[in-house]
């Protein structure tokens, strides 16, 4: 099964949450926070403007993006959690 985002939506594979603190303590499942960054897996064609043209999406497949803690909707694809959200919900793109 594959998912093709529509309009200005973006499909993101979140980074795995940390299982250990910086000091070496292992975190229980209940203490792990939802990741707030991930890798773009797919993008939609862009938002349809009033004049009939599409506004291109500003991120591309492979970009690492940052998003809000409660942004988007989690979906399961091939037993892997992904997040799908509108481009406007992104907070930024991580530089290299």
Helix count, per DSSP? 0
H/E element sequence: EEEEEEEE
Report mean pLDDT, rounded to a whole number: 86
The oligomerization state is single chain
CA gyration radius, whole angstroms: 15 Å
CATH architecture group name: Roll
User: What distance separates the N and C termini?
Assistant: 31 Å
The portion of residues forming beta strands comes to 35-45%
Structural shape: elongated
Q: How many E-type strands?
A: 8
CATH topology: 10 Kd Chaperonin, Protein Cpn10, Chain O
Structural class: mainly beta
**What is the CATH class?**
Mainly Beta
Proportion of helical residues:
under 10%
Briefly characterize the structure.
The chain has 96 residues and is an all-beta fold. It has no helices and eight strands. The protein has one domain (9-19, 31-93): GroES chaperonin (10 Kd Chaperonin, Protein Cpn10, Chain O), CATH 2.30.33.
Question: Could you describe the 3D structure shown?
Answer:
The chain is mainly beta and 96 residues long. It has one domain: GroES chaperonin (10 Kd Chaperonin, Protein Cpn10, Chain O), CATH 2.30.33. Helices cover 0% and strands 39% of the residues. It has strands spanning 9-14, 37-43, 47-48, 54-55, 64-67, 73-77, 80-86, 90-93. The strands form two sheets. The protein has a six-stranded antiparallel sheet with strand order 6-7-1-2-5-8, with no helix packed on it. A hairpin with a 2-residue loop joins strand 6 and strand 7 (80-86). The chain is elongated, with a radius of gyration of 15 Å. The relative contact order is 0.30. The mean pLDDT is 86.
């Amino acid at each position: 099964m594959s998912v093709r985002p529509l309009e200005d939506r973006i499909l993101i594979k979140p980074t795995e949450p940390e299982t250990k603190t910086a000091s070496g303590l292992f975190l229980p499942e209940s203490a792990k926070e939802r990741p707030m960054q991930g890798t773009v897996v797919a993008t939609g064609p862009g938002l349809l403007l009033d004049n009939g043209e599409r506004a291109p999406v500003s991120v591309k497949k492979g970009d690492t993006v940052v998003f809000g803690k409660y942004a988007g909707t989690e979906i399961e694809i091939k037993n892997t959690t992904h997040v799908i959200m509108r481009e406007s919900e992104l907070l930024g793109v991580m530089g290299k």
